Every structure is written in C-alpha cells, then in structure tokens.
C-alpha cells in the first residue's frame, strides 16, 4: 500500500500563502492600531507600508516631499509618513529636533544610503558621531578656513580668468558646470592638498558633474536596496572605464582617495610638501582617535563624503544666486555698488589689464550686508539638501502640538518646507534679499546647512566660497558705462532653477540645459 503524499506542492503553496497572509495581517493590524506611532495622523497607507513612500520617491522621481507638504496641509504640523517615521513642519521645532546639546542619533535606514556608514555623516550613535566629528571640526572651523583662505582665492582667481576668456571669445558660459568645477577643485585642494583641475578642462569636466548628479538619482533606491551600492563598489577601475567613461571617472576618484590615504599611512605621501598645508587625512591620523577609527576604508568614506557634499550643494547655490542676480537689474546694481566700496586685499596681486586679482579679504566681504543678504536668499532658494533629515532622540520625550513623541522615534524635518513657508517668508518663491535686512531674526529659519551637533561639516568653507566667488564675479565684471560687453543670462528662465523633486539634492525639470550666460555686446 502506497503512502499518501501529505507534503505535495499544492499543500506547501497553500501553507506558505496562509503564513504570508497571516503575517501581513498581523503587521497591518500592529502598524495601524498597536504601534506607538498609531495615534499620529497621516494616510493609513503610509502607516502600513514603505511602498507608498517608495512609489512617490523611487518611481515618480523624488516627489514624496511634495506629498508630505500636502499631508501637512490636511493633517497638521506632525504626521506619520511611513511605518516608523514622523515628519514635523513647525519651523520653531527645528532647533529642538536638531539640538546642539541633546543626544541625537541618525535613523539607521539613512546611514547606509550612500555607502558611507562609517563616515561621520553616516554614523548612527550620537557619542560615536561626536568622536568622529571632533577629529574633523578643527580643519573646517572658521579659523581653519581663514588660515587656508588663499586656497579658495586661488580657485576664484582661476575662475575669473576663465570668465575673461569667455568674454573675449563670446562663447556661452555653462554656469552649472563652471561652479561644479570650482567647488570640486576648492574642496579637494582644501581637504586633500590636490585637485583634478576641473576648472582647467575645456568644458569644466562636465561629465564628472553629470555622473555625480546621476548618482544622486539612485538615492531613493539605495535606501532600501543597499546591495546596489555594494555591487557598484565591487567594480574594478579597468572595468568601470570600459563600461562607461563617467563611471570610470567616479571610480578613479574613489581609488585615488584610497591610494592617497595609503601613502600617508605608509609615510610615502609628499604631496603636502609642495603646498601650504597638510591634508585632512594627516589631521585624522595624528588625532587621538582610536586606531580602529583610522582604518583605510573608513577614512576613504570620509574623503568621498567631503568631496560629494562639498561639490554639488554649494555649486547649486552659486548657480541659483547667479541666475537671480543677473535677472534682477536693481539687485545686481545694488550689489555691485556695495562691492565697489570694499577695500582690496593687499596680499593679492593686482592685474592692471583684467583687474581680476582685485579681491577683498573674506573677512571684509563678510561685513557687507547686501552681499550677505543675497547669499542668505540664494541658500534659502537652493535648500542645501532637499532630503528630509531624520533624527532620533534616544532618551528624551519630544513634545509638539499636544503630542508626546516617544524616545527612540525617528523624526524628520525638511529645509524645503521651512524655506517655502509663506508665514515666515512672504512670497517665498521670489528672490528678495531685502527680507534679510528688514528682519535679522529670519536667520534662525535658514536651515540649508541644518543645525545642531550634526550640522553640515563644511558650512564655513561653503560660506567662504559663496562670499569670495560672488564677490569676485560681481566686483570684477560690474557694469560700467565704458564697457563694450556685459554679462547677461542666455535663454534661461526661472524654470531652470525651479526645484521639482528631491534626489537628496535639488532636482530640476527633465531636459534641463543648465543656467547659461554670455558676455553680450552693448
């Protein structure tokens, strides 16, 4: 007599289906009714599954930020945006969430989003983050930037030289690519005592810039599928170059950082001996960090973050500033008049033909109120990063709008929503530097660099670039009656600087040709 087949395929499939269905039912019930976050308002589908967020961000291309904005209009200042995260839109809560004094962890899912979980920016635990940042802070402090001001000035002068060449040739100036080359050269020279001289490239090495932007598009996928990054990091340099020229540039850049760190660790790196300063890696390796924190792979992650963060956000802010200043004659005139009044830096060489070395000191530029207002306004409209930045208060109950947020809860806020808040910034879509002069208290609501203990490491360097680049351009190429040519926008409109999506950094419309300018004959 044959034994009956108890475990046939149909039975197994049924049991599996039953198990998965039961599991899904239990998860849904828990998230909707039993979770500590179940009492917070928001769409039920967002509370049940991450797929709602994934659809709007990964599939629709960074659109969840606008959905969150709509949710706040419907549900109020605090909402649940996924099964494990809350979002707050109250601007006065920002300094509480992003506190300088209180413990703030990073939400784990964001830690590995860019493949740099061991860099300071990806560090989850508060105390580990403070330890890692302590080794980096002196290099990027205000005093550190003043000490290496000449590094920034050298790149500003080179950029002005390039603009003179454009003036003579009459060719179009791709401002996006030019500013990306400028900020990339600055941050690499500043941090690594070397750079790839992208300002010297005929097209400002636009392909490298485009690849960095393309990489940001993956951010909403890699947040959930970290294996994509691991696969990318496993590609050897020779293969990357064969597959795609742009990919080859990115992998080559990453490889060069690792090689430089190895040379410094081995004592064979001599690059700093021909320049005025040592690298950030010299500072870290000579710090009192534990030896486990000085591993090659961890330092390489720090280097990649420094360059990535120090290139795109600042270059976009410069691009936004240039567009709005060139588009508004009255703003441009007032800025140029103010820049004419500032004294020159005697440490800089003077060129009687081009006058491009007429560069004031950074400290003098920082005292100019209208230039400062223009910079604040361009930061407001460029947002820094468009991504929400989630924090966890591990041992503190946060209170807002009658709600107690339990310790250990992931809570996020977005610079986009704060900078677009019409209650704080009337006519928020307009570039109006005067608002900062009329109400100095607005400073507390400028969060392009975030705030608190995890504020952007490179804030002082970024401000130096903004002051020195904009100051240099609008002083050198100020409109004069005797000029034969003037710097103007070319086939560029406000749509070209309108942020339409969140790819961690601002995303613009498809088919974007870039903000372009030209020296037009008068």
From TrEMBL:
<protein>
    <submittedName>
        <fullName>Cytochrome P450</fullName>
    </submittedName>
</protein>
<keyword id="KW-0479">Metal-binding</keyword>
<keyword id="KW-0560">Oxidoreductase</keyword>
<dbReference type="InterPro" id="IPR002401">
    <property type="entry name" value="Cyt_P450_E_grp-I"/>
</dbReference>
<feature type="transmembrane region" description="Helical">
    <location>
        <begin position="12"/>
        <end position="34"/>
    </location>
</feature>
<dbReference type="InterPro" id="IPR050121">
    <property type="entry name" value="Cytochrome_P450_monoxygenase"/>
</dbReference>
<dbReference type="InterPro" id="IPR001128">
    <property type="entry name" value="Cyt_P450"/>
</dbReference>
<dbReference type="GO" id="GO:0004497">
    <property type="term" value="F:monooxygenase activity"/>
</dbReference>
<dbReference type="GO" id="GO:0005506">
    <property type="term" value="F:iron ion binding"/>
</dbReference>
<dbReference type="GO" id="GO:0016705">
    <property type="term" value="F:oxidoreductase activity, acting on paired donors, with incorporation or reduction of molecular oxygen"/>
</dbReference>
<keyword id="KW-1133">Transmembrane helix</keyword>
<dbReference type="Pfam" id="PF00067">
    <property type="entry name" value="p450"/>
</dbReference>
<keyword id="KW-0503">Monooxygenase</keyword>
<keyword id="KW-0472">Membrane</keyword>
<dbReference type="GO" id="GO:0016020">
    <property type="term" value="C:membrane"/>
</dbReference>
<keyword id="KW-0812">Transmembrane</keyword>
<keyword id="KW-0408">Iron</keyword>
<dbReference type="InterPro" id="IPR017972">
    <property type="entry name" value="Cyt_P450_CS"/>
</dbReference>
<keyword id="KW-0349">Heme</keyword>
<feature type="binding site" description="axial binding residue">
    <location>
        <position position="456"/>
    </location>
    <ligand>
        <name>heme</name>
    </ligand>
</feature>
<dbReference type="GO" id="GO:0020037">
    <property type="term" value="F:heme binding"/>
</dbReference>
<comment type="similarity">
    <text>Belongs to the cytochrome P450 family.</text>
</comment>
<dbReference type="InterPro" id="IPR036396">
    <property type="entry name" value="Cyt_P450_sf"/>
</dbReference>
């Amino acid at each position: 007599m044959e034994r009956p087949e108890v475990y046939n395929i149909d039975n197994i499939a049924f049991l599996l289906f039953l198990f998965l269905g039961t599991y899904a039912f239990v998860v849904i019930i828990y998230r909707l009714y039993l979770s500590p976050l179940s009492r917070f308002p928001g769409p039920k589908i967002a509370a049940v599954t991450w797929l709602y967020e994934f659809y709007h961000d990964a599939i629709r291309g960074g659109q969840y930020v606008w959905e969150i904005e709509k949710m706040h209009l419907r549900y109020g200042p605090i909402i649940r945006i996924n099964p494990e995260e809350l979002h707050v839109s109250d601007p006065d809560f920002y300094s509480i969430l992003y506190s300088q004094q209180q413990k703030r962890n990073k939400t784990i899912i964001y830690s590995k989003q860019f493949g740099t979980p061991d860099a300071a920016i990806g560090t989850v635990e508060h105390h580990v983050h403070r330890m890692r940042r302590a080794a980096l802070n002196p290099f990027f402090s205000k005093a550190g930037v003043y000490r290496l001001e000449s590094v920034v000035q050298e790149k500003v002068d080179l950029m002005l030289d390039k603009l003179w060449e454009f003036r003579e040739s009459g060719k179009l100036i791709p401002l996006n690519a030019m500013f990306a080359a400028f900020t990339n050269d600055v941050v690499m020279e500043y941090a690594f005592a070397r750079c790839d001289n992208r300002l010297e490239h005929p097209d400002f090495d636009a392909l490298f810039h485009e690849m960095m932007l393309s990489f940001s598009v993956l951010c909403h996928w890699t947040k959930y599928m970290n294996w994509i990054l691991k696969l990318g990091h496993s590609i050897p340099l020779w293969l990357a170059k064969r597959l795609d020229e742009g990919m080859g540039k990115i992998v080559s850049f990453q490889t060069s950082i690792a090689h430089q760190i190895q040379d410094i660790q081995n004592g064979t790196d001599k690059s700093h001996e021909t320049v005025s300063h040592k690298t950030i890696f010299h500072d870290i390796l000579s710090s009192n960090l534990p030896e486990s924190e000085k591993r090659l792979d961890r330092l390489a992650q720090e280097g990649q973050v420094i360059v990535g963060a120090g290139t795109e956000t600042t270059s976009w802010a410069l691009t936004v500033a240039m567009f709005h200043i060139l588009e508004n004659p009255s703003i441009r005139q007032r800025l140029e008049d103010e820049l004419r009044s500032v004294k020159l830096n005697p440490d800089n060489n003077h060129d009687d033909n081009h006058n491009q070395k007429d560069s004031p000191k950074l400290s003098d530029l920082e005292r100019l109120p209208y230039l400062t207002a223009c910079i604040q306004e361009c930061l407001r409209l460029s947002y820094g990063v468009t991504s929400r930045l989630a924090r966890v208060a591990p041992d503190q109950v946060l209170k807002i709008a009658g709600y107690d947020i339990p310790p250990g809860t992931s809570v996020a806020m977005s610079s986009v929503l704060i900078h677009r808040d019409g209650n704080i910034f009337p006519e928020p879509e307009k570039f109006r530097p005067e608002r900062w002069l009329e109400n100095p208290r607005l400073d507390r609501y400028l969060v392009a660099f975030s705030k608190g203990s995890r504020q952007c490491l490179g804030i002082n360097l970024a401000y130096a670039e903004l002051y020195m680049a904009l100051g240099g351009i609008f002083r050198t190429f100020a409109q004069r009656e005797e000029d034969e040519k003037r710097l103007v926008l070319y086939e560029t409109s406000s749509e070209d600087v309108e942020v339409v999506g969140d790819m961690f950094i601002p995303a613009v419309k498809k088919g974007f040709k870039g903000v372009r300018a030209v020296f037009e004959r008068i």
